[in-house]
Specification:
With about 190 residues, the chain is of the alpha/beta class. The chain has helices at about 15-20, 30-35, 50-65, 75-85, 95-100, 120-140, 145-160, 165-170, 185-194, and strands at about 10, 25, 45, 65-70, 90-95. The chain has nine helices and five strands. It has a five-stranded parallel β-sheet.
Length: about 190
C-alpha cells in the first residue's frame, strides 16, 4: 500500500476543485498536449513513460493521493490501471481536461504555445486518411486495398488490447513534443519526489 488513499476511483472536475491542493496532479498526455493547457500545478508524465516514472510516482503517492489527468479520461484511466499493477493507487479526472475546461475551470499554458489536437483526434485523422488512401489507390492498383485492411486490423487490435501504436508514433512528431523551455522529464521526476 502507498500512503493514505482517500481518493475515489474517478472524480468530477467539481469534486477535484473542492479538494484542490489535496492531490499531486499528473497529466499523462504528450508534452505538446500538456503545453497547450493543463490543470494548475500538474506534472507532465506522458503515458508511454509511466512505467519509468513509477518509483517517483510511488514516492509522491506516499505524501498525497495522485490524480491522473488526460484529455478525455481514457488515458488517465489506463494510467491508473498501470499504476495499480505496480502497487500505486490513483484517481482519474472524469472527462479529463476537456470536462475541466467545459466546467469553466482555468488551465495553465505557456505564452505563445500552439495548441495541438488531442491525441485521439490525431489518431482518427491519421487512420482515416490511410484508409481513404488505401481505398483510392486500390482503384488503380488493387493490392493497395491491403493498406485499408491493415489499418482496420490495427484499429481492432487497438480496441481489443486498449493500446495504440499509432498514438505512440504520432506522439513523436514535432508538434507533440514539449516547447524548448519546458521542464524536462528528469526534473519532473525530481519534483515529484521532493
Amino acid at each position: 500500500m502507498t500512503g493514505p488513499q482517500t481518493a475515489p476511483t474517478a472524480l468530477t472536475p467539481a469534486e477535484a476543485t473542492a479538494r484542490s491542493g489535496a492531490f499531486t496532479v499528473v497529466d499523462v498526455r504528450t508534452p505538446g498536449e500538456y503545453a497547450s493547457g493543463h490543470l494548475p500545478g500538474a506534472h507532465n508524465v506522458p503515458l508511454d513513460r509511466l512505467d519509468e516514472a513509477a518509483p517517483a510516482l510511488r514516492a509522491a503517492a506516499r505524501q498525497r493521493p495522485l490524480l491522473i489527468v488526460c484529455a478525455s479520461g481514457a488515458r488517465s484511466a489506463k494510467g491508473c490501471e498501470r499504476l495499480a499493477a505496480v502497487g500505486v493507487r490513483a484517481a482519474t479526472l472524469e472527462g479529463g481536461t476537456s470536462a475541466w475546461v467545459a466546467a469553466g475551470y482555468a488551465v495553465e499554458r505557456p505564452a505563445g504555445v500552439r495548441t495541438p489536437w488531442p491525441m485521439d483526434r490525431q489518431v482518427r485523422l491519421a487512420a482515416g486518411s490511410l484508409v481513404v488512401a488505401g481505398f483510392v489507390a486500390g482503384l488503380a492498383w488493387p493490392p493497395a486495398h491491403w493498406l485499408s485492411g491493415l489499418i482496420g486490423a490495427g484499429l481492432v487490435f487497438s480496441g481489443a488490447t486498449n493500446t495504440c501504436g499509432m498514438a505512440a508514433l504520432l506522439a513523436r512528431l514535432p508538434h507533440n513534443r514539449p516547447p524548448r523551455d519546458a521542464v524536462s522529464f528528469e526534473e519532473t521526476l525530481a519534483r515529484l519526489t521532493a
